[in-house]
Design brief:
2 helices, binds fructose -6-phosphate, globular, binds zinc ion, six-stranded antiparallel β-sheet
């Protein structure tokens, strides 16, 4: 039997065909993500911030892999660039690879002692995200930031820790330049 093919357009970072699942996040569902909540509440709640296209051919089984592409749109809430929610993996020891496809931005990486660093993301950049490391993409450019990803299919996502504690750094526009600023943990 001839199977439908899945196509990954490596220039556009577009994934189509069999077993491709798409999901997106709009501003209205990103409460508590950006520093300036008031500014966010004044913006269009239907404004898309990012979209993920994921190839799921095995389900969340041990030993499986997922392949995905994240498209983070250009934009800002106040002076803070559009970004993903960010997460630890539910299975903390699961690692992940990211690679830059198009656009410009940063990958924020934070370990469990809240030590945070940023890696520049650009077409061709490769990023190994070790286990026990929270990760978030930030689009500092004027076009979509498109990033490929591959991770263990049983890794899971822990969003609640980041929702409660945030990252210890934010990326903001200061005088037209992306700048990392410290963010203290909520009490
Ligand atoms: C999967 C992974 C990416 C993100 C995507 C959206 O483990 O890291 O596919 O899921 O960039 O970001 P989040 O999941 O933080 O909303
Ligand atoms: Zn991940």
């Amino acid at each position: 039997m001839l199977q439908e093919t899945t196509i990954f357009d490596s220039l556009l970072g577009k994934l189509t065909g069999e077993n491709v699942v798409r999901s997106s996040r709009v501003l209205g569902e990103l409460s508590g993500v950006f520093l300036n909540e008031e500014e966010r509440s004044l913006m269009d709640p239907e404004q898309m911030v990012y979209e993920v296209q994921m190839h799921d051919s095995c389900g969340e089984v041990e030993g499986g892999l997922f392949f995905g592409v994240s498209h983070v749109l250009p934009g800002k809430v106040g002076n803070e660039y559009f970004m993903t929610k960010g997460h630890y993996h539910q299975k903390r020891n699961c690692a992940e690879y990211y690679w830059g496809i198009s656009g410009d931005g940063f990958l924020l990486l934070m370990d469990e002692s809240r030590e945070c660093r940023a890696e520049k993301v650009f077409p061709g950049s490769l990023h190994f995200i070790a286990g026990h490391t929270a990760h978030r993409l930030v689009n500092t450019g004027e076009t979509r930031l498109v990033v490929g990803a591959c991770w263990p299919s049983d890794a899971g996502h822990d969003y609640s820790t980041i929702q409660k504690e945030g990252f210890s750094m934010r990326v903001v526009d200061q005088d037209g330049k992306p700048t990392l600023v410290p963010q203290f943990a909520p009490k």
